[in-house]
Backbone:
């Protein structure tokens, strides 16, 4: 697992649940030196141990922790680069959905060694979609649901999401886009925010 992902998990747990929780999780999961380096690779099993330890200590399911991580990646000031990368996909939530096919290529331009899920969007009816998420890492469907929830709010869209899993590394997320202009979205500029 790329260190950027592990470091994001660490920042999420520290920011949302406190440094003491992170220290306990890091010790239980045997994180080297108690912290992740963003540019170092780590074994996938270590990431799994971190999520399992956090879920146990917070008395929540791993799916809930991963979905919260997805929301955090979009809403936290410390991870705004993720929001910017995804918002480049278009001016509406619908544009964003259609841009997911290109996400792997966009990420490769920024961080060539980072593995991101492969997305396949299938339209169903007037407002329905199936988003198939394939990743070598189990649980990315849950993270994707969190990202979609946060980005729907970010765009001001009214969306209903349902997730079903076909296998550990593949998820099928049903997206019902009820209203793409339900509310005012968060401010975003492709040119960046003024200083």
Residues:
């Amino acid at each position: 697992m790329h260190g950027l992902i592990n470091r994001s998990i660490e920042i999420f747990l520290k920011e949302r649940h406190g440094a003491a929780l992170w220290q306990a999780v890091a010790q239980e999961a045997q994180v080297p030196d108690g912290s992740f380096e963003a540019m170092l690779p780590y074994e996938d099993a270590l990431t799994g141990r971190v999520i399992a330890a956090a879920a146990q200590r917070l008395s929540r399911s791993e799916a809930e922790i991963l979905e919260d991580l997805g929301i955090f990646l979009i809403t936290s000031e410390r991870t705004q680069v993720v929001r910017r990368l995804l918002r480049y996909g278009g001016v509406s939530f619908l544009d964003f959905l259609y841009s997911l096919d290109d996400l792997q290529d966009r990420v490769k331009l920024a961080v060539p060694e980072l593995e991101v899920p492969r997305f396949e969007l299938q339209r169903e009816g007037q407002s329905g979609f199936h988003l198939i998420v394939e990743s070598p890492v189990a649980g990315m469907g849950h993270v994707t649901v969190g990202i979609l929830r946060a980005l729907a709010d970010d765009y001001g869209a009214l969306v209903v999401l349902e997730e079903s899993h076909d296998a550990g590394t593949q998820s099928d997320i049903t997206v019902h886009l009820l209203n793409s202009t339900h509310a005012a979205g968060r401010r975003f500029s492709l040119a960046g925010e003024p200083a």
